[in-house]
Amino acid sequence: MATPDPATQRARSGAEDAELLDAWRRGDNEAGEALFVRHYAAVARFFRNKVSSDRVADLIQDTFTASVEGRDRIADPDRFRAYLLRIAYHVFCRHLRDSYAKGGAPVDLDGSSIEDLGTSIDSVLGRAQQQRLLLEGLRAIPVNYQVVLELHYWENLSTREIASVLELPPGTVRSRLQRARDALEAAMGRLARSPELLESTLTRLDDWAAGCGRALSKGAA
What is the pTM of this model? Predict the structure, then answer.
């Protein structure tokens, strides 16, 4: 049987994630493919500002493979995207552990940044100086701060949804978001080439962050 296209019938049109998941669980593989097409950009965005481009495709594949294996354990079918991103986070943590752990010691995601780990990130997007500063700032703060800010700004997840992704209490997510914003501002203050660039980035931070997210999506297409 030919694979339905374009883009798996536009990701099965207006069907809700819960409907597609139910159909997939009942053996409709096209519904599962539609879910992956629908949420591919979010998973790709998650990895593209954290690992080099030659690893992104493998980590996306690992995420989707794990999601197939765990599809029957999804507690809330309406939050399939959060489920996928939770798997992506675990895949990413395993990648860091396998790549950077030394002498059996775990990688400290609360204290180490992508920059600290020496991860090689390809230069992506950032036409505007403000976008480049924001991306550099994100890579300069602890990994778990970077993750929580990207989930907030790029995926527009609520505090409760971020809590689901990171398997943390919502109150912990709220405090982490505040600390992450403070850390990002401090990092950009160190990196900015001028006070004017820093001010223009901070003044329209939501807009610059949204622009970065859109550019990452285009690069992942």
Answer: 0.86
